[in-house]
Amino acid sequence: xxxxxxxxxxxxxxxxxxxxxxxxxxxxxxxxxxxxxxxxxxxxxxxxxxxxxxxxxxxxxxxxxxxxxxxxxxxxxxxxxxxxxxxxxxxxxxxxxxxxxxxxxxxxxxxxxxxxxxxxxxxxxxxxxxxxxxxxxxxxxxxxxxxxxxxxxxxxxxxxxxxxxxxxxxxxxxxxxxxxxxxxxxxxxxxxxxxxxxxxxxxxxxxxxxxxxxxxxxxxxxxxxxxxxxxxxxxxxxxxxxxxxxxxxxxxxxxxxxxxxxxxxxxxxxxxxxxxxxxxxxxxxxxxxxxxxxxxxxxxxxxxxxxxxxxxxxxxxxxxxxxxxxxxxxxxxxxxxxxxxxxxxxxxxxxxxxxxxxxxxxxxxxxxxxxxxxxxxxxxxxxxxxxxxxxxxxxxxxxxxxxxxxxxxxxxxxxxxxxxxxxxxxxxxxxxxxxxxxxxxxxxxxxxxxxxxxxxxxxxxxxxxxxxxxxxxxxxxxxxxxxxxxxxxxxxxxxxxxxxxxxxxxxxxxxxxxxxxxxxxxxxx
Length: 525
What we know:
CATH architecture of the domain at 6-233: 3-Layer(aba) Sandwich
Radius of gyration: 23 Å
Number of helices: 17
Structural class: alpha/beta
Number of strands: 26
Largest sheet: 9 strands, mixed
Strand order of the largest sheet: 2-1-11-10-12-13-14-15-16
CATH topology of the domain at 6-233: Rossmann fold
Helix content: 25-40%
CATH superfamily of the domain at 6-233: ANL, N-terminal domain
């Protein structure tokens, strides 16, 4: 028998039964109460015919019930498919059917979308409503599940799939990253070691729970018996109020969120002294923002994390000490503020040349990663799985970087044409496919360009056919009707001449990017 994710809640119930487990608005639950609800939820799913290995989807804002899905679905042998509610209905329907999702759990805000998915889906059998009131007649009430009887949990092995987490696809379709119990257990342990979670922590779920960066913290915090403090979605004023009211000690934010918090007009009116640590990711923080944030919350440690869904997610971390000394101007720490830190305990990360050989210090190559946190593969994507997992436990990240003599990683570009805007992953090919659907467009390339607010802004370079007319607003609206708003371009550049191409006819995106990035220290934000 190997460890599974159920061990985290089992330990918390055993050692901290009467400790406060969850704060969600006016609702407060102890670990004993949380454990009972999670156990009943598993029994209720079993009563609906959900068996070991079935996929259960969740489409919801942050909430107590959403947290219970993270703790309960894998615990009872099912597979969690936590859906990004920012996707379009067509994208959500694809994700649901791609992995044969059997049951979908939705909150009130997403009930209409859930109904539409159920109507069109070939795999869904049940729609469960986790809303606050009585469940509509065409749904099953979530509260009825968690109030029911409790049966023993099934035997779950560490190698069993715990979740399928969808990322943007390089071919225009999302792909499901398969993470096992072993993967997420390893990440929880690595996170506790790297970040130092303790039982007195009060962690604020401010980033969306469907993001693995936030969701993965769930297991680490639960394992040590800390308190989950939940807000439905990120809002700078709500975050500030909640930190003060609940004595929040740690959270995870992307730099875009941090920027909104520290520049909120009433930020200085709140007592934020309880904060001990903020983990940020998706991109480094500009030095000006770092200084502003550290001045606003001087008692808080700042840690940068680098990772991805395929690595469960943490790979490297830049410590609070690195941040402090770097901001004081001490070298080499000042220069290292541009890095993503060093590999965390339990994970290997190397820079390799195209032939797989180790790169020299300072030489740019691809980041290869190995550890018990590496995914099992992509759902029903054998070719992409084989390319990403070449053997001997290594994962090819597609991120280009170099390292210094002390193994600090400096990310400089992305080999997969992925753009990270406001913490969201966007693949340029997916956006280009939609732009090409417009009848006026004959050529299109989508790139990420520097943006103070979003880190990277999605920018389209377009050539239209002779005699055709289309403006920026029309093309952006065309995209927003077909894909999630965060994937649509925020700016469009129209050109008369064909886009630059290589000898093989591929558009040279590096030439399009260069004018925007030539003054930047690194080629991603």
